[in-house]
């Protein structure tokens, strides 16, 4: 059985760089996911983020979640629920402008730590995009520029908790979907599992590992690579025991960024027909909002029908 791809980033600086880049390449082409260890974000910072996130849930969100469950009568459900997720969430925005100071109910220490964590993740995301460029044979900086738009990328964090569920056979923690954006960096609970990806016609567990960062690719990277890399269906299964923490940060294109297959890749692969569409990222997000839990292929087809007035000139990488 294939093992879930784990990338030791320290090995990128030595004799094993080639083999490590090959693990990343295979993961992008065949898994859509991989897990990073020795990624440069300190264990102390990760431990603090986890502690404060779990404290915040207990203090501010746990009771609200229980009240929501009671008000909707979810615990009395007798058949599978397909229009709700068993999760408690809030969102932070970092780029192009931050809202971390305005989000209610966060104490000062938590705000400070989440800003610091986001800054570290932003650097890691941009480093990873350049590693992907190297594997694809694209000029360094190409993917970062492709995401830029006029105001730079969008970068935000979904902080989620998946509380114990009395009827896990009827609920998903999070229903199956692919992610709309670019590169997703997940700091997940190292004790309570539940995240799964769909590969080779079966659901595969994404293993919880202490102090790791899980990476997955969004729809935009599938478009830019013209399908060489794939966004992959994934879900969170509900559990009867334990409260699973999930902090997913999304490094996405800017709202007005024009997304399309990299011409250099089309030339290299002698592609005469461009398989994927050109579109403005925000137009895709508007479509995705209503179709998140449906297949991605009809979304791509719908975008082919959308005419944009944007300038589709080459992306400058200087």
UniProtKB/TrEMBL annotation:
A GO biological process held by the record: ethylene biosynthetic process
Which pathway features in its UniProt record? Alkene biosynthesis; ethylene biosynthesis via S-adenosyl-L-methionine; ethylene from S-adenosyl-L-methionine: step 2/2
> Can the keyword Oxidoreductase be found in this entry's annotation?
yes
Q: Which GO terms describe its molecular function?
A: 1-aminocyclopropane-1-carboxylate oxidase activity; dioxygenase activity; L-ascorbic acid binding; metal ion binding
Q: What class of enzyme is it?
A: oxidoreductase
Q: Which InterPro entries does the annotation name?
A: DIOX_N, IPNS-like_FE2OG_OXY, IPNS-like_sf, Oxoglu/Fe-dep_dioxygenase_dom, Plant_2OG-oxidoreductases
> PROSITE patterns this protein is in?
FE2OG_OXY
> In the Enzyme Commission scheme, what number(s) does this protein have?
1.14.17.4
Stored SUPFAM superfamilies: Clavaminate synthase-like
Q: Which residues form the signal peptide?
A: none
Keyword hit for Ribosomal protein: no
Tell me where in this chain the Fe2OG dioxygenase domain is found: 153-253
Alphabetical UniProt keywords? Dioxygenase, Ethylene biosynthesis, Iron, Metal-binding, Oxidoreductase, Vitamin C
Family that this chain belongs to: Belongs to the iron/ascorbate-dependent oxidoreductase family.
Protein name per the record = aminocyclopropanecarboxylate oxidase
Give the species. Answer: Dillenia turbinata
